[in-house]
Design goal:
It contains 25 helices and 13 strands. The chain is of the alpha/beta class. β4, α3 (126-137) and β5 (146-152) form a beta-alpha-beta unit. It starts with 6 loop residues before the first strand and ends with a helix.
Length: 744
Amino acid sequence: MDGKGLSTTTGRPTSTALHTAYPSRRTTANRIFAAIYASALLALFYHHTNNLLFHSTTFSSFFTSSSLLIADFVFAFMWLATQSFRMRPLYREEFPENLKRVLKKENDFPAIDVLICTADPYKEPPMGVVNTALSVMAYDYPAEKISVFVSDDGGSALTLFAIFEAAKFAGHWLPFCRKNDVVQRCPQAYFAANPSTTSETDKLKSLYESMKVRVENVVERGKVDDQYITDEQYHQVFAKWTDGFTRQDHPTVIQVVLDKSKDKDITGHQMPNLVYVSRQKSRTSAHHFKAGAVNVLLRVSATMSNAPVILTLDCDTYSNDPQTPLRVLCYFSDQELQSKLGYVQFPQRFHGINKNDIYGCELKRLFRINPVGMDGMVGPNYVGTGCFFSRRAFFGGPSAIVSPEIPELRPDNVVRKPIQSPEVLELAHLAAGCDYEKQAQWGYKIGVRYGSLLEDFFTGYRLQCEGWKAIFCNPEKASFYGDAPISLVDVLNQNKRWSIGLHDVTFSKYCPLTFGSRYMGILMGLAYAHYSFWPIWSIPMAIYAFLPSLALLNGVSIFPKVSEPWFLLYLFLFLGSYGQDLLDFIIGEGTFKKWWNDQRIWMIRGLSCFWFGFIEYFLKSLGISTHGFDLTSKVVDQEQSKRYEQGVFDFGVESPMFVPMTMAAITNLAAFCLGLIVVLTGRESAFEGLFMQVLISGFGVLNSLPVYEAMITSSKRGIPTRTTLLSVVLSSVLFVAAFVALRK
């Protein structure tokens, strides 16, 4: 492929350009504002230092001044890290229609291995895996160039049965998509958006619904009954699930469900390869959660197809655009980029988000806004799904390859034997064994990296430190859609797991502030530090959630009076930070209500899952406690889904993570009511000194409205009574402690 010179950076593409890039028009304004805001922060720290050195004459005043200094220092550090995304934002556009100048025949298209991971048929319904697999098998791409590998880390016969059913349906679905030029190639999404209009569509929908019924019946029964096993080959496969076969201890199962050299669809066209993989598990071997599963898929796919391009997908992330691989080739076909291009990351988007995104699940900054800023430097971080890799990127830096243990796994190896040949299958089983990685470099110098529960973040970070570049591809039409949690406890558990993984990176030798800055430059080091230090938002959140309110309840002023110049500094810092954040959000195709809910959930995270994530990480580090990889459930409860669509917070179950936020809600409400009493009784001099605390408490009350509603509701979506009572008791204890300390 000769794609030399087929790119532009002016925003005015030539007729042969495969892609173009142009900087954001707000770059200069961002830099000017950063300089002004940084000056204001220096003034704030001067004020804090002055108070601490010359006005903190008692223990309580020293404690208060020190706490505010620590909180504002963390806020300032995180603000500084955020500025890295605003220094060089870069936007891109691709022109797939020009690929024909580079890829003139089908043999010129590089092969693609699609790696899909699932782990539990009850938390990740097999029909979701089916739809994801079918959506990528139907790409506008030569079918013989696509191989789909499904990793079932739960070792479930239910998932394998669903894959067999998907293969049967694919024989009808793929030709239907080709014939009718279907754009939405996820069957579930297509039938939901397109009512039947022809007999052909009716027939296909009937086939899909009958497949869905069979798969869901099998999942409900918990086993594959004989009535569903119609082929002798099926009997041999499912016979592997004996009484001794458990998800924690079982042999390797690799099943070639579709073989492109043999299997045809109903019109006689070739089908893509479709392979089911369940790696060997043993209670005595480390498995490294999803990272280990992906590494097994990397090795198994290398033995069977060894495609130079790899797409990684979560089991619930289906393709929304059949031309997505062509957009990727606009970059991988450019010889100016090829040698150092490690991966092309697409934004993670979600279907089913309610109108105002009450839980902030879009994570717009993580998936849409910040990657644009990183793209102007070394490139975006890897987010675990919707990412096309160069297979070579998993084997050392661009300048020096790290060879695997056997030559068949090298990225430049050409597989010449059929996918079902005994030699290939024997090697694939060897590569999927739980002892294969012993005395090997997998997870450390090769493949997806071990060392963090957040394997995607850590892997992308390590690859970029090794010298690989990345591209953020964000076309107008979403390329992928996934599922988002629809209950608060699921959101917080997911974020707690992320927090633990981020701590793994922060407190290691790979800390982005040191290791990352050394290998990628200070801006990229700060960008990754923004993520790895994400959980420390909990420190200023806790201080500002409780200290101003507790001081207000005791009539103690801890901020400048309204009439003092320092008050204007605080006002500027608050409005400047929030205003810029809102502007970024709106430009990133958000709305004010979504932004408001996003900042609310940011506060909730800071008072719940971030703290609990740190506690769990700390206990794990001491060897007191160990944690597992808790899957986020993709199962949809209809009643819960209805409440979510109505925009109602669903606390759902009892959780200790609800206690701190409930305490903060109670404390701020009491403080705000006291502040109103001060105003109504006409004590203006007192109110002037307490105004900022009343303002902060009022802001806390406004953000806590869903908590108050959940505290008084009697339905199962509310906060359990025991949690509310415990929060009241602890808030009272906190008030008494503050009374004793602040009154001295």
